[in-house]
Amino acid sequence: MGDTFLFFFFSFFVLFSAFMVIRSKNPVYSVLFLILVFCNTAGLLLLLNLDFFALIFLIVYVGAIAVLFLFVVMMLDIKLAEMQESIFFYLPIGGFIGLIFFIEFYFLFNKEFVPLHLETLSTGSTSMLTLQFYVYAFWAFVLYGFSAPHFAQKFRAYSTHFFEQLRGLEHQAHQNLEYVIWPTYVDSKTPVEALGQVLYTYYFYFFLVASLILLIAMIGAIMLTLNPHRAVRRQQVFEQNARDFAKTVHKIRTLK
After folding, report:
1. pTM over 0.70
2. Which one of 52, 122, 133, 186 is CB 3.0 to 4.6 Å from 162, fit for a cystine?
3. For the domain bounded by 1-111, which CATH number is listed?
């Protein structure tokens, strides 16, 4: 009962905060609601006993990215007048993205999340049966083509024999099901070890690309906050050191 209440509690605030992120006119409030989304998502991960991912959400997303967004928004001094545009201006592109989102969910929930290893039918066996069926049908048409009842009878017999053989192959394939017991593989390692093995073994290219994207984001934040003053007079150190002291320093004698 308690887990169910916490699940609905965190889920409600995740949806509400996500809606307020895109609905709020003030960009600072949007970032604060984004932080609230990450915190409630971490609560949902704790309910699933994924404590490592919950801490990653709090440390990485809330502690780094969301706070970075907040400081960038505050330093850029975004004018609120630009946020007062009509919502119907963004309705076409928003509707298109929403349609793609719901299509993805449709295909996602149509899949079976059962870890089964099904041995497929032999391609050679099915191809030979199909070829045999068409040869028999053509031979029956040649022999009994001018007699419709005899052709229909032979065609029905050949098709029945074909589907019986195909059904036998399917039954044989379904008898060779192999269940993969995933807990025996997952529980043998800690979550950090399993994540590190998968990330640095199979997806290290994506890890490098993500690092490059974060580097570009950091450089972009520096360039956005950089405010060079072109009117400031600066000295060239090399030219100053290369000057001749006797030619640049003059003694001015004042007359009394």
Report:
1. no
2. 133
3. 1.20.120.1200
Helix, strand, or coil (residue 116):
strand
Instruction: In whole angstroms, give the CA distance from residue 35 to residue 14.
Output: 10
Asked if residues 58 and 38 have their Cβ atoms less than 8 Å apart, the reply is: yes
Residue type, 69: F
Cβ neighbours, 10 Å, residue 118:
10
For residue 45, what are its two tokens? 């991960």
Q: How far apart are CA 85 and CA 91, in angstroms?
A: 12
Query: Average pLDDT by consecutive 10-residue portion of the chain (256 residues)?
Result: 84 91 82 88 87 83 78 66 60 81 69 42 49 58 55 62 65 61 66 79 88 90 75 73 72 62
Q: Map out the domains of the chain as residue ranges.
A: 1-111, 123-179
Per DSSP, the three-state class of 34 is helix
- Tokens linked to 38: 């990450």
